[in-house]
Queue: 4 jobs
Job 1
Amino acid sequence: MASCAGPLIVIGGHEDKEGDKAILQEVAARLDGGKLVIATVASHEPEGYFDAYQKAFAALGVTDLVELYVNDRDETRSPKNLDLLRDAAGIFFTGGDQLRISSQIGDTPIEEMVRAIHDSGGVVAGTSAGASVMSETMLVRGSSAESHRIGDLHMAPGLGLIRDVIIDQHFAERGRIGRLLGGVAQNPRVLGIGIDEDTAIVIDGDTFKVVGAGAVYVVDGSTVSHSNIAEAGRQEALSMFGVSLHVLSSGDQFKLSSRRPCARDPST
Amino acid sequence: MASCAGPLIVIGGHEDKEGDKAILQEVAARLDGGKLVIATVASHEPEGYFDAYQKAFAALGVTDLVELYVNDRDETRSPKNLDLLRDAAGIFFTGGDQLRISSQIGDTPIEEMVRAIHDSGGVVAGTSAGASVMSETMLVRGSSAESHRIGDLHMAPGLGLIRDVIIDQHFAERGRIGRLLGGVAQNPRVLGIGIDEDTAIVIDGDTFKVVGAGAVYVVDGSTVSHSNIAEAGRQEALSMFGVSLHVLSSGDQFKLSSRRPCARDPST
C-alpha cells in the first residue's frame, strides 16, 4: 500500500529566488493553491526572510503565505500560531540554526502539526538549517573546508521526518565532504546526503529526485572495510576505506531502501 | 626484480616548516647527507621561497642546499644550471603554477636530469604545483568549492613520474573533491589522489604511505556504473554513480596496482 505521506523537499541553501526558481517551483506545484507557512524559527533575526519568500512565491502564483515564528517554546502553544498551521497545504523551514528549530519546536504542538501536515500528504520543505533538521540525527556543527578530525563533529536529534539519513547542506560550496564522511563513519546505518546550494532533493516515499543547479552527494558506508573513528585520538584525521560515493545532478533519482541511483533519461 | 627508482614525496601544499616538520623530515631522511636542489621554477616570483626552505632544512641537518630557477627554456641548457643537478641526491619542486614547471622544463636537459635522479634512487619531492606536475596528465585549472561542471576542467601533460594517477592538492581546504571526480570521470583508468595541506604521500615502488596532519582521498572510478561527462552540456553538473572512495590518514598505506588501502598498525 502506498504511503499517504507528502513530499519532503530538502534544499541545500541559497535556492534561486529571482531567476527560474526551479526549486521553489517544485514547492509551489505541490501546494495545489493551498496555504504555505514560512517557518523562520531557525533564525535569531528573522526580519526580511519572509518578505523575500513572499515576493518569490507570489511570482509563482502562491499568494496564501503566512509566517510562523516563535521566540520561545511557550509560544508554540499559542492558539494564534496553531491556527496558522491548521489548514496549511505545506510548511517551509528557512535557514539559520538547526538547533533553534529542534530546541524551540521539538516535542511541542507545532511539531505535532508539522508531522500531521506531512502524514496527510502536505509538503514539508526546508533549506539550509531547515534541511538538516529533517533527519532523525542531524549535523549541528563540524569543520568545513578541512578533513574530518575524529572529535570534531556535533550531532543532535532532529525532527525525524526522514529516517536513516544524515543531511548536510551548502555542500560543495563549504567543502563539507569531510564532515559528512565523519558522520557516516559513526554509524554506516545512516546514509549521508550532501546537498549543494541552489539544489534540492524531492523525496516521495522511498525515492528522491534531484532538482536545481548543483550536485547531490550520497555517501554509502555499507561497503566500508575499515575506519579509525573509534580508536584514533580526537585531533587525528579520519581514515575510512571503501566508501561508495554517488554524485547526482538534476533529473537523477535515488532509491533509498536499496541505496541505488538511477540516471536521468537523457532524452528529457 | 625491485625497481631502483627513488621515492617520490608528493605534498598537498603548506607543509609545516616551523613545528615538527614531519614531511620535510621524510625528505631529509632520504637524502643520506647528499645535496638537495630546491626548484622554484613554478613561481613567477620565487624570491623568499628558497630562504624559507633553507632555514627549515638546516634545522633538520640538511645543509647542502642549492636553488634552481629558470626564467626561460633557454636557461635549461646553461652549464651552470645543469651543474646544480649533476651530483644531487634529491630535488624539491616548490609551489606556484604547474604549467610553468611543465612548459619551462618539459623536454629539456633539466627534465632528463630530474628523471635520472629518480631512476637512480634519488628523491623527487614536490609541494602544491610541484605535486600536481608529477603525474602524466595533470590538473591545471578547475573550480574549487563547487561541484564539477562538465566543461570546467583543464588538464595538461605533466612530468609523468607517476603513471595512471591524477593528483590534486590543497584538497579539503579548497573543497576540490568535485574537480578530482571530474578528472577521474574523464577516464577511470587514472586513480584520483587528493592531498590535504601539510600532508604527503611517500611513494616507494608500487606503494605509498601517508605522512602529515591531514587526509588523503583516493578516488577509484573502476566501479563507476554511470557518468554524464560525455553527454551533458558544459554548464551542467557532473553525475557519477558508484565511485569507490578511500580516506587515508597518517600511517595508512595504499597499493597502487591493486588499488587497495591498508590501515596503519594501531600499535604504532
Note: The first strand of chain B starts at residue 8 and ends at 11.
Job 2
Amino acid sequence: MKLSSLRTPLRDGQLIVVSRDLSRAVAVPAVAPTLQAALDDWERMEPKLREVSDALNAGGKLDNVFAFDVSKLAAPLPRAYHWVDGSAYVNHVELVRKARGAQMPETFWTDPLVYQGGSDDFLGPCDDVPVPSEEFGIDLEGEIAVITDDVPMRTTHDAAGSHIKLLMLVNDWSLRNLIPGELAKGFGFYQSKPATAFSPVAVTPDELGAAWSHSTLQRPLTVHVNDELFGRPNAGMDMTFDFARLIEHITKTRNARAGTILGSGTISNYDRSLGSACIAERRMLEQLEHGKPITPFLKFGDRVRIEMFDEEGRSIFGAIDQRVVRA
Amino acid sequence: MKLSSLRTPLRDGQLIVVSRDLSRAVAVPAVAPTLQAALDDWERMEPKLREVSDALNAGGKLDNVFAFDVSKLAAPLPRAYHWVDGSAYVNHVELVRKARGAQMPETFWTDPLVYQGGSDDFLGPCDDVPVPSEEFGIDLEGEIAVITDDVPMRTTHDAAGSHIKLLMLVNDWSLRNLIPGELAKGFGFYQSKPATAFSPVAVTPDELGAAWSHSTLQRPLTVHVNDELFGRPNAGMDMTFDFARLIEHITKTRNARAGTILGSGTISNYDRSLGSACIAERRMLEQLEHGKPITPFLKFGDRVRIEMFDEEGRSIFGAIDQRVVRA
C-alpha cells in the first residue's frame, strides 16, 4: 500500500491512497482525513485503506480516482510529533572523524547515535528549499525513514520490527558550515538542520518484497545533483544499526508515539565506487585523497533528486526533486 | 484567558476554557475541539475563546460549566509538533561548567543554547513520571515556556514578541547520569530527556499583567520536593536571553509553526538564597562549597511540585504535582 498527502489549505493536507505504479490516486475521507489520523488508529484503519488500495491496483470500480501529480503533494506527514534521525551507517561517522584527524570512540559501533529534528514544518517532495545564505554550506543527506505506531518505553530489538508501519525516503537538508559551531556548544544540531523533505509516498513494508529484510531496506538510493549521478549507495549494506535496533535505542527512557518518523542517517557504503548520499562525505574522501575538498556545497538554483527503484527499475517512493532557493 | 486540555480517549484531549481563579471550566466544541486546532487558526479563534473566558470570569450565563479538576487533565498540548528548550539562565550553565572545572566559552553570553525535546508524549500536570531505573539520576528542571503562532524564518527580536500567545510552567524531567555519556557522543540529549510535564493551564500574556515585561516573566517559581521548599528563583532575574531573543535564534534557518513550545531552561539566580529549580544545580553548589554533592537525585515515590503565584498569592498556572514511579 502506498499513501501520500495532497497539499490543501489544512495544515495536515489530505490523505490519499496511491496506486503501486504511482499513476493514480484516490482520497479516502470516509476512512481517515489525514495520514496522522490513520496512524493514530492504525490497527483499525489499515485494513480499510488496504481495501481501497487493492481496488485501485486491480483497476476496480472506485469513484473519484485522479491522476497522481507529485507537484500537488505535501510530505506524507506534512508535520509530525516526532522526527528522530539516526547515524546508522557508522562508516560515514568514521569518515567524518578521519577527515578531521580525530579518533572515533569504539562505542560508536555498539551504541547508536541519534538527534531529534524539526518536525513542525516539513517540505513536500517538490518544494523549493529556502536557505538564508549560500555561506551556510548547503548539503543534502539521502536517507531512509520508517514511521511507527505507538512503541512503548523499553521495547526490545525483537519486538521493535512489528512497529514499523511505513517507509519513506528523506532528504535531511543540512547546513554544514553551521554544524561545527553548533556541535561545539554541546547540545547538538538546531540551526544547522533546516526543514526536512520526504518522498511523494510512504509505503507499507510488504510493498518492498524481499528488499525489506531484518529491518533494513536492501536497495540502492539514487542521488542526482543537477541531473548528474552523485551516488547510488545501497541502503542495505553497511547499516551498522538496523531500524529495530534504532527503535530499541529511542525507547530506552520514552514511549515513541504513533507517527514517529525514525531516519537511518546518511546512507554510506565502504565501496567508494558507489558514490555518496551527501556532499560532505565526498568532500571528506577528496580531503583524504587530495589533501583538500574539491566538490563545492550547493548554490541557489541547484537541484537535488533522490529516488529508489525496484529490481525492475520502477520507482518505489517517487522522487524527491527540489531546488535550493534564497530564503 | 486560561486554557487547558481534559484527558479524553482522543490523543489531543478536549480544549477547555478555565476561570481566572482556576475553580470552573467549560468546553468549547463549537469554537475549537483542541488547543492545537485553536493555535492553528489563532487570529480567528482567540476572540471567540475570549468571549467565553470573559463570560466565565464574569459569572455570566454559560451552559455546562463544571468544577475545574486538575486530576483530569492532560498537558495543555498533550502532544506538539515542536518543543525546543533554551538555556537562557546562563548563570546555571556557568555553574555546571565550574563544578566540573571547565571554562565556559564567552560566546555563551551572546549566542543562545537550545535543544529539541520529545513532543509526542507529554505528561499531564498530575501524571506519574515513569523512569526505568533510579540509577539514571532522576532530576526535575523548573522552567517557563511560551507557545507561539506561526513564526517565519528570520524573525528579528523586535518582531518576535508578538508571536508569543500563551505561557505555561514546565518540568523538563532529566536523567542526569545519562547526560555525560550522551553529550560526549556530540549530538545532544535524547535518552537523558524523558517525557516533559506542563502546568494545568496555559495563559495568555495579559493574564500576567506587569509581571510579563520585555518577553520575560517577572515572578518567582516555587519548587517543592516532597513538600519541602526546594527553591524559589525568580524567572525574571538573570535571564540572559529573553523569549524574543530565543525566538530570533530558533528561526535563523527555519519557520517555527503554530503550537511551537519554547522553554526558558532551568531558572537560576545569582542570589543563592533563593534556592534552585533543579537538584543538579544544588549539587553543584554543594560541590563548590563542600567538595562533594550532598543532595541525592530523586527516588521512586518522591514528589515534585512546581507552581507560580501572583502578587496576591493566587496560583497563576495551577501546580505541576507529580510522583516518580518505576517504569
Note: The first strand of chain A starts at residue 2 and ends at 6.
Job 3
Amino acid sequence: MIRIFKTNTFYIVLVLLLTQACSPKSNERETEGGLSEDALPSWNNTEIKNRIISYVEGVTNPSLPEYIKPEDRIACFDNDGTLWSEKPIYFQFYFVFDQIKKKSKEHPEWKNQQPYKAILEGDHEALMNTPLPKLLEAIQIALAGDTPEAYKAEVKAWIDTAKHPTKKVRFDQLVYQPMLELLDYLRANDFKTYIVSGGGLDFMRGSLIDVYNIPSEQILGSTLKTEFIETDSGYVIIRQPELDFIDDKDGKPININRVIGKKPVICVGNSDGDLAMLQWTSDQEHKNLEMIIHHTDSVREWAYDRDSKIGHLDKALDQAKADDWVIVSMKEDWKVIYPQGNSK
Amino acid sequence: MIRIFKTNTFYIVLVLLLTQACSPKSNERETEGGLSEDALPSWNNTEIKNRIISYVEGVTNPSLPEYIKPEDRIACFDNDGTLWSEKPIYFQFYFVFDQIKKKSKEHPEWKNQQPYKAILEGDHEALMNTPLPKLLEAIQIALAGDTPEAYKAEVKAWIDTAKHPTKKVRFDQLVYQPMLELLDYLRANDFKTYIVSGGGLDFMRGSLIDVYNIPSEQILGSTLKTEFIETDSGYVIIRQPELDFIDDKDGKPININRVIGKKPVICVGNSDGDLAMLQWTSDQEHKNLEMIIHHTDSVREWAYDRDSKIGHLDKALDQAKADDWVIVSMKEDWKVIYPQGNSK
C-alpha cells in the first residue's frame, strides 16, 4: 500500500485500476510476384523506421555477433499512450466511472458523498481536488467483489459498446495502427511481446486480448488483492477492495523480473512511468532497443509531454535524448495514427 | 507477511525461500515401420495411464464435444514431491544451508546464535524446534542482497555439483522419469506446462529450467520483495530480506490467476499444499484432470502421506478419493522412478 503514495502524479497512480494483426517475416518480404512487401506500411520511411528494422534484422541474423536466441527475444510495451490513446483521461477511467454509475442505484447515499457525487455528475474539476486515498477507496469499492472472470466479462461488454467522448468511436478503435504493425513484425521475427502497463490487469485482460492479439499470460498490470474461497456453488477467486501491486515506475522492471524472469531486449513506452523499465532494458549484454512514443500530433491525436499530467514525459525524454534512444514522433514518423476501417 | 503464519506446517511454510524431454505427438505414435511408440514408456499399463491418455486424446480431438482450444490447454504442476523428490527435506533447504555456511565466515557470531548454530552443526532436531519467524528471518538474511541474476548463477553452480545426502547423486538426478515423459507428452499435444511451487522462484529458475526444459516465464514460485535501484555501474534489481508472496495453498490459484489469467485444465500435485489449485481446476466448464502423486514406494523412493511433515497429504487424499481424481501410486504405476543414465 505504501508504494502508492510515493508516486508523483495523481493520474499515474490512479491507473492501478486500469489499461490487430497481419504477418510478414521481415520488413521487406518477397511476395509471389517477386516484389517486396513492407511490414511497417504505416510508418514513414524515416531514420526511425530504419533503426527499428536494422535492429530486428541484426539480432535475428545467426551469423552476426549481435544475434539473440529466440527465447531471449522479449519485447515489453507500455499500453496507455504507447499502444492506444490516453486522452483526455486514461480510458479505464471511463469504465470505472460507468461502473460507479451502475452501482449507484444500490447506493443512494453516493449522491451526496464525495467522490461519488463528482463521478456521478461528471465533475472532473472536483475529482482532481479529491484526496487520492479517498478516490482510490471509492474506486476499489466499485470494482471489487467479483470473480476475475465476471469482471473481465463486464469490461468486455463495455469495450464492445462504449465510445470515446470526443473522438466518437469505440475506445478500441483508438489503438495505433503503426504499433499493431510493429507488434506483428516482432512476432513474425520470433519476439515474444508483452504489455507492461500501470493499467488494471483484469481490465486489460477483459478488453485488449483480441485488440492486440495477445494472450492473457503476456499482459502485466496493476492488481487488487484476491482471495480464494469455497462457496456453495464451487471454488472461486474474488477481487478484494485492497490494492496489491502498482505496475508503474519501479514496479515495471520488478514485475517483469517476477513474471517473465528475463530482461527485455526491446522496451517501448511514452512517459516517465516507463523510465525504469527502459533504463533496466538499456543495461545488459544483449543489443537492445529503447523507444519512446512522443505525442507530437495535435491534429490527428494529441500533442503533449512535459506539462501533461496524463502521459507525463520529462525525465524519460531527457534520458532518451542523452542516450540516443529511438524517439518516435507521431506527427513525423507515422503515416496514419488509427487503423483505417477499424470496425468489427 | 500475515499469510505465512497461517500455514500449518513448519516445512511447507519455510519453502517460500526455495525452490528433459523427448517428443511424440500422441501416446501411441505410428513409427516409420508402422509400429506404435509409447509416449509414456515409464508408466505401467494400468488404469491410471489409460485415464491420462484418454483425457488428452479427448480434449485434443476437434470432433469431440470436450475439445479444448490450444490456448486454453494449461497444465500446472507442483514441483517438490511431484516432479522431483523432497526427502528427507526439501532440496532447496540444502542450498540454503550451504549458503549460510558460506556466509558464516563473515558472521563469526553465528556459531553461538540460533538458528545459525543449528544450521552450521546440521542439527535438524534443534532446527525443528526453532520458532518459525526466527528461522525465516535467518534464511532471509542469508539469501537476500543479490541481483536475481547473481543468485540464480549461485543456484546453478550448486545444483551442478551438490549431492543428495543418502541417494549420493546430484539433486537434479532425482527428478521423476515418468513425469518428464508426461510433461513432454502434454507439450507434444500443445499443452502449455507450468510449474507452480511453494519453492523459491529464483531458486527454481536457477536450477530447473534445463532439467524440465521449461522457460523461466512458465515457473511460478514464492518470492522475496525486490527493489529497482541505480548503482554506479548501472540499473539493477536487488532481492530484499523480506517475504513478498508465498506460493502455497490458496496462494497457488491466486498466483496462477495473476500470472497466467486462465484456469488450468490439468493440475498435478502431491500434498495438501496443492489442494486449493486442484479444487480450483476441478470447478470449470472445460473437461479437467486432477492428479495426485502418491508416495507409496519405500524401496525405490520414500513412502509417506498423512503423517509426514514434508509433503503432508491428508485432506487432498480424502478429496481425491471422494471426487475420483487420478491417484498415481508410484509403486504400482511407475516402471522406473528416476531417469536411467541421467548424467550430464
Note: DSSP finds 14 helices and ten strands in chain A.
Job 4
Amino acid sequence: MIVDIHGHYTTVPPGVEAYRGAQIAQMGAPTKGKMNVTDDEIRKSIEDGQLKFQRERGTDVTLFSPRASWMGHHFGGELISRYWIEQTNDLIYRVCNLYPENFVGVCQLPQTPSDPLANCIRELDRCVSQLGFIGCNLNPDPSGGYWGAPPLTDRYWYPFYEKMIDLDVPAMVHVSASCNPSFHATGAHYINADTTAFMQFIQADLFKDLPALRMIIPHGGGGVPYHWGRYRGLAQDMKRPLLADMIRNNVFFDTCVYHQAGIDLLTKIVPVDNILFGSEMVGAVRGIDPETGQYYDDTKRYIDAAPTLTAADRNKIFEANARRVYPRINAKL
Amino acid sequence: MIVDIHGHYTTVPPGVEAYRGAQIAQMGAPTKGKMNVTDDEIRKSIEDGQLKFQRERGTDVTLFSPRASWMGHHFGGELISRYWIEQTNDLIYRVCNLYPENFVGVCQLPQTPSDPLANCIRELDRCVSQLGFIGCNLNPDPSGGYWGAPPLTDRYWYPFYEKMIDLDVPAMVHVSASCNPSFHATGAHYINADTTAFMQFIQADLFKDLPALRMIIPHGGGGVPYHWGRYRGLAQDMKRPLLADMIRNNVFFDTCVYHQAGIDLLTKIVPVDNILFGSEMVGAVRGIDPETGQYYDDTKRYIDAAPTLTAADRNKIFEANARRVYPRINAKL
C-alpha cells in the first residue's frame, strides 16, 4: 500500500472560493452561512484531479487537508477564521465519506493571530473525535510572511501540543499564503518555513518536554537535508543533541522534492525511519518536466529510483512510517 | 590558484566590538571617532585565524569582508551605520595591505532601513575606487528578519545596481543578524534569504533590464539546488525563462555547504560555470565533523572529492569563475 501523506484539496468547486469571497463583506458581522458545493461537484473535482493522479501514479490513499495557501490565517478575526476553517474541514470530511478508500482527513486550524489557541484545540478535537481525521496542519506564521508568532518551541504552543498528544495525532508544519512581497508563497515562504521550523527544534528542548509530540516538516525538510552538515555542525557547536537523536521519534520529512537528485540526497542523508512519502499533488508545481517527460510532482518515481533504498526501506517510506506517525490511520486502512 | 570568495573578518580584535558598543551611547549624537585596533592586533587575529586555515587547507586568496552577522543595518540611523561601515571597511583595507597576497577586499554597505541608497552608492565607490575592493555584500533585509525592504528585483535597487555595473563589481546577497526570534541567524535567516533571493530573481526581469549585473547567492544557494526541480517547475508554470538561461551570466552560487552529499548535489545540478569556491571560514560552523575528522567548513575537501567534477571543472570553481565574476581580482593576483 502506498500512502501519500501530503495532499491538499486544491481543485475545489467554485462554491468554496465564493464562500471565502463573501466573507470580505462580512468582516463587521460574520455569519457562518453555508458553503454551496454539491456532492456531484465534489465528485467531479476529485475524479478529474486527485483520484485520476492516484490511479495513474499507482498510489492508494492520500491524507487530505484543505488547500494550504488558502488557510489565510492573516485574514479577518476570530469568527471569520473559525467559520472558514470549520466549513473547509467539513468539506474534507465529505470527500473522505464519498471516497473512503482513497482519502483520510487532516484538518486546518483557526489560527487567527493573537487569538487564543483554545479555538484550535476545540477544532482539532472536533475533527479527530467527530470527523475521524488523523492529523492537522499547523501554521508557524499565521501572519502570512511577517513571522509574528512565537517560535514553535515556545510554551505558548504547549497546550495545543498536549491536545495533539492526547488525541495521538501529529502536525505537519505548513505555512499559508505570503502577504510579504519579498516571499513568493510556494517558492520561498514554504521552503523558508520548513528550514526555520527545523532550526527552532534544534535550539530548544521541545521533544524532551513532550516526547510523544510528532511533527512532519514538508517539502523534503526545506533546505535542511542539503545543509545537513551545517545543521549537524550548528547543533554540535551549540552543544545540542545529535540530529539523528533529536528527530528519531519526533521529526519527520516528507518527499515533496521534485527531482531525482534531491530525493537521492534526502534518502541518503536522513534516516529512512524519518521519511514519509508525500507528493503535494495537485499543488505548487503542476507541469511536466521536459527532462523526464513526467510530472515534476510524481515523487513516487523518484523513490522507486533512489539508489540507496532497499525494498524494506521503500515499504517504510510508502506505508509503515505513516502508520507509526499517524497511528489513527490503522483503523482506516 | 584557489580563491575563496566568501570570507568574513570574524576574528577581529576587541577594539572593533568596543567601537560598536560605544555607538549605543551615541545614538543621539553620533561621532565617527576612532577604532582602536593596532596592526599587531590585526596580525595576531589573522595569523591565528584565517591565515592559519588558508595554509592548512591549501587555499591561496580569500575575498574578505566585514563580519556579516555584525553588519547590523537594523541598528541606529544613517550616521551610526555610516560610521560603523566606513570603519569596518577601512579595517578590511588594513588587513589587505598587511597581507596583499592573501586577502582582497569586499565591502559592506550602510544600508540603514528607509535611508536612501545614495549612501551605499557612495561607500561602494569609495571602497572600489580608493581602497581597491572588488565586490560588496548586499543585504536584502536590512530590517534584520522582518523583511521590510522591496524585493531585490524592485526598481528601488536599480541606481545601486547601475553603480555596481559601472564599477564592474558583483554583489553577494547576504543578510546580517536576525532580530526576529523565529529565525536563528546562521541556521534559518541566512538560508532563507538565499532561497528568497533566488525566487525573486525567477519572478522578474532584473537581468533582462541589467544584463551586466552579477549576484552571488551564498551558502550553496540556500535551499535552491536541493529543490532545483521545484524551481524549474515553478519557472515553467510561470512562463519564465529556463533556470540555466536565467542564471548563466548573472547568478552564481558559492560552495558553503558543509557535507559531501550536499556538494555532490550542487556540483551535479548547477552548471559548473555558476559555482564559485567559498568556505565562509571562520564562520557559522566552527567544529570538526566527527564523521570525517575534518572541519565542517573545509569545503575544499568536498570539491576535491565530488565525483562528477573534472580537473577543468575544479579549475573553474576554484579560480576561473572568480576571475570572471570579480574581474577586478585579475589586477590583484
Note: Chain B is about 45% helix and 10% strand.
